[in-house]
Amino acid sequence: AQQPGTPLSDQEYHEFFKFLQINIQASTACHLRELYGCKNSLVQRLDEYENHGVIPPGPICSELPGNPFFHNFCTFSLYRCIMKKYFLKV
User: Does residue 89 lie within any of the structural domains?
Assistant: First the structure.
């Protein structure tokens, strides 16, 4: 079992994004985030699932070279949506 607040493993990410692999579905999930924000219960459930039940409070460091810092998980997730880098990990 993973520690709460840690990112998913590669296999868990595969399962997490299985339903989002079609570009339209991924865009829809991102659109929900953009429309309703990170306080929306559905968006929060997705964020919790992605992080083993706990949304990391921040700051968030990612695998991005050059600009790896985000103030919180919401900012990080919005960046992934905008850049269409759905599998970018924290």
Answer: no
